[in-house]
Automatic annotation (TrEMBL):
Keyword Glycosyltransferase among UniProt keywords: yes
Organism: Rotaria sordida
Record-annotated Fringe-like glycosyltransferase domain positions: 163-272
EC number: 2.4.1.-
Biased composition (Low complexity): 118-133
GO CC aspect terms: Golgi cisterna membrane
Name the UniProt record assigns to this protein: Hexosyltransferase
GO MF entry, a single one: glucuronosyl-N-acetylgalactosaminyl-proteoglycan 4-beta-N-acetylgalactosaminyltransferase activity
Stated family: Belongs to the chondroitin N-acetylgalactosaminyltransferase family.
Length: 826
């Protein structure tokens, strides 16, 4: 027992010793850690006076101790070499908070003197005092000159367009060969320039023609190169020089240049007659990079003096060899410049053999072409070649998509039809369901909510019959050509904004034995690439002249217009942006003499409004029409003719009637939608139904306002009496009217712009343009224009009320008649 207790006591004391050792080692380790961490702190020299005075007494002795010889820690412990790094000053480190609102970038031009930064130099040379000598160099900030930046970021970054094609042609070939090249290449290249040997005034519209006034034919290429180097070199990466009797495949040329790197000097073409030749043949086309053209421009004087040959290939090649030291190559970036040159080429004789060769199908140019008919045949042939290539590519992509669909979550075979087209639109609610239009070969049913059946317009007719013809063609390929089209049984069309137009057609076919077959075809016309149409810059600050024609019986209507405009329009418009022109329309001289008296009530209202809105400009005018038989749809032409001498040629005009309710937002849209010489604006207003019929089905508390609801009115797309345009556009169409000797007394201004000009016409519903109800009279005078007479009849029928409202009135009348008849019988 004693032994065991002694053993326990000994082991207990041993454990206490171990614990005390552990605690002692931990304490020593912590102390050494603190000492070493303080010793290894980076030495800081703070430039701020408030901070440096505080830290100076601590940093100086420590620096002195670390820079001494034998007693310093870094000489004793080689592993602590990190202490030998010089202390970093706070002035050496600049922290910029980019999220701060005060941060503004600054531009430091390279041509100014450099700014010397603050530098701290520690002299570690051992001297008698063993002290560091710190020298702080002065900071000198130069006066920065403001830099003028480019208007467009593409100019500042040096972004250029792809290619310019320069064609050397003759004056008498502008309307033949040059016109053909312009029409076939303009969709594939960025610019086409035609260089002719003389000044010319009559050339096709849309062509860029440059005249070379020098009869020496061998110098024409140098004039062309000089023009390109001076005018176009900053805008394009590649320049393609060619003659006009060369057929060019624009699609292949664009595809070829897309595979070539622009960061190289390139003199590319097809060497002629000799594989070792260093000159590219001009007839098959020459591609020059912008860098090579820049070098040619420097040596252009030498090239002109040494152009002793009549061969354009030799003159251009010699110039490139002198300026850029480059021979002709036909390969760049692993892409080959293929061309076909044959002076005895005949399309009908040679195309059968050439079509089987891959080199001819991949060629970029064909030279020479001696007649325009061969050009057209080549264009048709290569179009078919490109279609076949695209068809094969589409099939490969479809197969790839079908194979890849097996790895999708939906599994194999669950990709939407057709392959590669986005899936159909899925409506989130029942209000967004896409409608289907039912059609036959001549009519479309239920095209709108207001139409039961509508005769196909020209574009609809072409669209649907193209679908029918294509369906019959595909069915004949599958079931045999003995099946002939008999008629269309059913047709359905749906436009999906996410993928395109979807068609389902049921076609009745008949064979030679008069046996009938019904086949259903499903087709899709996918949407193409979306193009952004460049439009000129317009603002909402343009001054607008609102012309308000008022007939003699519309005085109260005009006053109502002024009351409504006083609430919604006049407080937001100023004299710099808006002017109201009240115009009294009269047909007799007696009315014309009484016009001042007629304006008294309106003038009183205007005076009251002007007392509140003193910034307004409201003027009074009177227009005497030649005859009283001029219809309403022709009066806008007489109004514009009347104001042509009173307004500036660049005036923005909006012409309407006093039945409308408009606000300032609508006028701003008018300012943006009307573009001089480009676009005019014919908004579609929301026309009110007959107030008596509306009151029977809807509680109306205030008849002065029009609610946007289907039981209150409809968007009248058959009226063209709201017009926004510039006076200059009317003057231009007026010249065409007089040139073609058109009678304006029976014409609509909208129809004149459609028939005589190429201006864009923006026609769309506008919810802010609301028109009060007025009775429409279709007089016999309107019958001189059958189209206007038909429009008038439709407006009179649809403008009364909706079909459901009219049906309710008919039902009520029938019930009242039945009740009255029963009472009479009793």
């Amino acid at each position: 027992m004693a032994g065991s207790s002694r053993h326990k006591t000994t082991s207990l004391m041993h454990r206490h010793r171990l614990k005390s050792r552990y605690i002692l080692s931990i304490i020593v380790g912590l102390i050494l850690g603190f000492v070493l961490s303080f010793a290894c702190l980076p030495l800081m020299s703070i430039c701020d006076s408030s901070s440096s005075s505080f830290f100076e007494q601590f940093s100086s002795p420590l620096n002195l101790h670390l820079n001494t010889g034998s007693l310093s820690l870094r000489n004793k412990f080689d592993s602590l070499r990190i202490l030998s790094r010089h202390a970093r000053s706070i002035a050496d480190v600049t922290l910029v908070d980019y999220r701060s609102k005060d941060y503004e970038p600054r531009i430091h031009p390279l041509h100014h003197g450099s700014v010397k930064s603050n530098t701290t130099i520690n002299n570690n040379n051992t001297n008698t005092n063993n002290k560091n000598k710190t020298v702080l160099t002065s900071t000198r900030i130069p006066n920065l000159i403001p830099v003028t930046r480019h208007r467009y970021i593409a100019d500042e970054l040096g972004i250029r367009e792809k290619v310019l094609v320069a064609v050397l042609t003759e004056t008498d070939r502008l309307n033949t060969y040059a016109l053909f090249l312009n029409q076939t290449l303009q969709d594939y290249v960025n610019r086409l320039s035609f260089f002719v040997n003389d000044n010319v005034q009559d050339f096709p519209k849309g062509m860029h023609v440059v005249a070379i006034n020098d009869e020496r034919a061998y110098l024409k290429p140098f004039y062309m190169l000089k023009y390109l180097a001076e005018k176009m070199i900053k805008s394009y990466d590649w320049f393609f020089l060619v003659s006009d009797n060369t057929y060019i495949r624009g699609y292949k040329l664009n595809e070829f240049l897309n595979h070539i790197s622009i960061g190289q000097d390139l003199y590319l073409g097809q060497a002629f007659d000799d594989v070792h030749a260093v000159y590219c043949y001009f007839g098959s086309g020459i591609i020059l990079s912008a860098s090579v053209l820049r070098k040619i421009y420097v040596e252009l004087d030498w090239c002109t003096k040494n152009a002793y040959s009549q061969d354009l290939t030799d003159n251009i090649g010699r110039c490139v060899l002198k300026a850029a030291k480059l021979p002709c190559v036909n390969t760049a970036s692993n892409s080959k410049f293929n061309t076909y040159v044959n002076y005895r080429f005949e399309f009908d004789r040679d195309i059968g053999i050439l079509s089987k060769t891959e080199s001819f199908n991949q060629t970029l140019t064909v030279h020479p072409i001696n007649d325009l008919a061969t050009m057209l045949k080549l264009q048709k042939y290569f179009n078919q070649v490109e279609i076949n290539e695209m068809t094969q590519s589409i099939k490969k992509y479809e197969e790839t998509i079908e194979r890849s669909s097996c790895y999708a979550p939906e599994g194999c075979g669950n990709i939407p039809w057709p392959v590669g087209v986005p899936p159909p639109f899925k409506s989130p609610t029942r209000f967004d369901v896409l409608r289907w239009d039912y059609f036959n070969e001549t009519h479309i049913y239920l095209k709108t909510d207001n139409d039961v059946i509508d005769l196909m317009k020209d574009n609809d007719y072409e669209d649907i019959h193209e679908v029918i013809d294509y369906s019959v063609e595909q069915l004949q390929k599958k079931y045999g050509t003995e099946l002939k089209f008999k008629k269309l049984l059913n047709g359905y069309r749906q436009f999906d904004p996410t993928r395109g137009t979807h068609y389902i057609v049921d076609i009745l076919l008949i064979d030679e034995n008069q046996k009938e077959y019904i086949k259903r075809a499903e087709l899709m016309r996918p949407l193409g690439l979306v193009e952004i149409i460049p439009m000129p810059f317009v603002t909402e600050t343009t001054k607008l002249h609102l012309i308000l024609p008022i007939h003699s019986d519309e005085q109260s209507i005009a006053i109502r217009f002024l009351h409504y405009a006083n609430k919604t329009l006049f407080d937001r418009e100023t004299r710099d942006k808006f002017e109201l022109l009240l115009t009294h329309i009269v047909t007799t001289k007696e009315e014309y003499s009484q016009t001042q008296k007629w304006f008294e009530n309106i003038r009183n209202e205007v005076n009251l409004i002007c007392q509140i809105h003193k910034q307004l400009i409201i003027t009074y005018h009177t227009l005497l029409l030649p005859t009283s038989s001029i219809p309403l749809y022709s009066q806008p032409i007489y109004l514009l003719e009347f104001f042509q001498t009173k307004l500036h040629i660049n005036s923005l005009i909006f012409l309407t009637n006093p039945y409308v309710d408009i606000d300032s937002d609508f006028l701003n849209r008018c300012r943006l939608n009307v573009i001089e010489n480009i676009q005019i604006f014919f908004p579609i207003g929301f026309n009110q139904y007959h107030p008596y019929i509306i009151a029977r089905t809807r509680n109306i508390t205030d008849n002065s306002t029009i609610d946007l609801h289907k039981t209150v009115g409809w968007f009248n797309s058959y009226a063209y009496d709201h017009i926004g345009l510039y006076m200059n556009d009317y003057v231009n169409v007026k010249k065409l009217i007089s040139y073609r000797n058109i009678s304006i007394s029976t014409m609509n201004l909208y129809d004149l712009f459609v028939q005589l000009t190429d201006l864009h016409i923006l026609r769309a519903p506008d919810q802010s343009l609301r028109v009060h109800y007025r009775s429409i009279k279709c007089d016999t005078d309107i019958q001189l224009n059958p189209m206007e007479y038909e429009r008038c009849l439709i407006q009179r029928e649809k403008g009364l009320a909706s079909r459901s409202q009219l049906a309710m009135i008919v039902i009520e009348n029938e019930q009242n008649k039945t009740t009255n008849n029963k009472k009479n019988k009793k």
